[in-house]
Design goal:
Blueprint lengths: L15 E5 L4 E8 L2 E9 L3 E8 L4 E7 L2
Antiparallel strand pairs: 1-2, 2-3, 3-4, 4-5
Length: about 70
């Protein structure tokens, strides 16, 4: 039997800090309600994508597009 999956409730993390390197590499971190958040990915000229993870076991992907 697989292990139980965490229940991922919505949370707001403020402040969130991060950096974007000249090559487009993204790194971010935040904290709120005793939970930490990390994210990473890559931004290009027209779009970007990456992953995020919380210390409570929740995680996922993010994406962006220039409008």
């Amino acid at each position: 039997m697989p292990p139980p999956r965490p229940v991922c409730a919505s949370r707001t993390f403020r402040p969130v800090t991060g950096t974007v390197s000249p090559s487009g590499s993204v790194s971010t971190v935040g904290q709120g309600d005793g939970v930490t958040f990390t994210g990473s990915g890559r931004l290009g000229a027209r779009s970007g994508s990456g992953t995020w993870r919380r210390s409570d076991g929740c995680g996922g992907t993010w994406s962006s597009a220039k409008q």
